[in-house]
Amino acid sequence: MKVFVTGATGFVGNEVVRHLSGAGHAVRILARNPKSGPVRALASEFKAEVHPGDVLDTASLVNGLEGVEAVVHLVGIISEAGESTFERVHVVGTQNVLAVAQRAGVKRWVQMSALGTRPHAASRYHQTKWAAEEIVRASGLRFTIFRPSLIYGPRNRSPWRRWRRHSRGPSAKPNPSGRHSTSAARTR
Q1: How many independent structural domains does the chain possess?
Q2: Which of 26, 129, 169, 172 has its CA 20 to 30 A from that of 39?
């Protein structure tokens, strides 16, 4: 199967590309900067095809989705900077990729959202993640939406590595009240 992956250079994206490639799928990644080190490393290590483009530029997506059977949409931001707002990246970016995917005949969509996403959420981050989910639900495509919380693994270079170290010791106890609990997923 040929799979188009957005957000491939992020931690989750790297893991998804690694697993798709390992399972024998042809992977095409969307890259705003196709000559960057992380993009070149993914392309080399996993034989991923690189398609230059941006989720905010519909025209740049058109050729990238030709011949693709599935999309794994992982693009997201956790803080806003300049024109990279939650609304533009989460909502408009999802609309753009989805519209081009539909025109290209893509049949399957996988969307990464976030734990805590719901209608009328307090944060704009979660509001825009919900809006993106609603766009996917209304698309008519077969879809899966997943809402991870904390994702960690050996290739994660984030502060969450500290959490992983602490999660092995006695401080990582279940909270019987069910309040303030953490759900984590580990990659291999």
Answers
A1: 1
A2: 129
Q: How many CB atoms lie within 10 A of CB 6?
A: 27
Model's pTM, two decimal places?
0.85
Q: Tell me what pLDDT residue 44 has.
A: 96
Contacts of 187 (CB under 8 A, 6+ apart): 15, 151, 152, 153, 154, 155, 156
The predicted-structure confidence for 90-126, as pLDDT tens digits, reads as follows: 999 999 999 999 999 999 999 999 999 999 999 999 9
Structural domain that includes position 134: 2-148
Residue 169 lies in a domain: no
Count of other CB atoms within 10 angstroms of residue 133? 21
Nearest to 94 by CA among 132, 123, 66, 126: 132
The CATH number given to whatever domain includes residue 108 is: 3.40.50.720
